[in-house]
Amino acid sequence: MRPVWAWFGYDEPNYTYMKDGRKLLSEIAALSPVTVQVRAHNLLTTGDGEAALKWGSTNAYTEDKRGRPVYDWTLVDSIFDTYLERGMRPFAQIGFMPEALSTKPQPYRHHFTPDQKYGTIFTGWAYPPKSYKKWAKLVHAWVQHCMERYGEEEVLQWYWELWNEPNIDYWMGTTEEYIKLYDYTADAVKRALPNARIGGPEVTGPGWDKSADFLRTFLEHCARGKNYATGETGAPLDFITFHAKGAPKIVEDASGKGYVQMNLGQQLRDIDKGFEIVASFPEWKDLPIIIGESDPEGCAACSVEFNPQNAYRNGTMYSSYTAAAFARKYALADHYGVNFEGAVTWAFEFENQPWFAGFRDLATNGVDKPVLNVFRMYGLMAGQRVQVGGDLAYDAMAVRDSSIREADDINALAAKDERTATVMVWNYHDDNLPAPDAPVTVEITGLPGGNLLMEHYRIDQEHSNAYTLWQAMGSPQNPAPEQITELEAAGQLTLLTSPEWVKAKDGKVSVKMQLPRQGVSLLRFSWK
After folding, report:
1. Active-site pick, 12, 27, 161, 165
2. Is the pTM value of this prediction over 0.90?
3. Could you say which of 2.60.40.1500, 3.40.250.10, 2.60.120.10, 2.40.480.10 is the CATH number of the domain covering 384-526?
């Protein structure tokens, strides 16, 4: 049960050390029994550190009047310090282009709002450098600074990666220019710390031909291409990254009323193709794979107000989708025999925004959403994954090929260690429509004799769900302090029933439940 879920990321790095950002990071760290990795954009972007949607800056690099580098690590340190203080580690993204190095520096700062088109954000920060040597010196200086501040032993545990989605407008250069930047970047990282881990290329979903071609070209170059920085053959590559996204939309029912329909299959097709491409390279098939963004769709900062298909984000549809998706990621990795290291959930929080505005976040104004409780469930699972069988409508390949459009996806993910057994059960469907609760029987075999403590956790409309409580309060945009206290409590993972002692008969325990559509249960058995 490799904790591939313990990876999170977001566009706006300056939220990291703000009030609700620090609170949420503490909660994420607390729920995970392993070190959480955090990936953020804009760590080298020029600016005053003001936080905004899809924007962030650290002003790490400027130049004096004579064009000499001026390094200022103050804000980058504040971000990394916040992670490390909580026992987390940075998944250190090297980007974006400082204004003084950009080949097209103006305009530089964008001012994205949710009513704007996504393409308005690709300004001066997205361009190649005027000097690859100056860029390499910046990277080298940053790695050296981190070693001095945090110690070589600590920095050796980090993942360093270059850029984000270079096959689309996040990179306004060519494929070859990205590869050249990678060569200079990897060389700079390795010169500063020879055993540091460096990887890429963080392309968009490989299910798209242009993305798949970019990924293959990159992997081929790292294996056999001429290195732009050193002139040698190939480039250092310690792990491989790509993205995978679904595609929700609004569908009209028979009466003409619209509802959200998810597309889990599309996300899985991206993952499937990425795994297939990596497995096709003998040089790289055993390298760790990190899905650098793995989500139901692509724009975390696009709210429901202007994107009605994102209405799934506040309630239990996001949590049940997440449960169903991660189980299939494990299964696809098994199918291809690849080294699946992690999948970054690209969702954090947005400071000073309306309550439950429908951003893709884990908490709103310091109150946790139901989806965060799925990760609390994962935090309770440990040991080895164990086989799940029964009367199941879908396996991973069926979901990949057709998504969840017919029967409900009632399925499970299970694990066992020396003293516990855990079973996560979900009732997911791509269509966000009402449906009767499903009668579910879970039979667990191979349990030890004697008394077992059974805990049954649940996420549904009434449990582990601050959103429904907020709605019952009248959807206040200025909740009273006592209401906020109630919402914070409702946002935590809660038990469906009181813990109870059970005995396994011939190593078996059977549990019956009524599981609502978009509901998730976690059964946890423990023994001495």
Report:
1. 165
2. yes
3. 2.60.40.1500
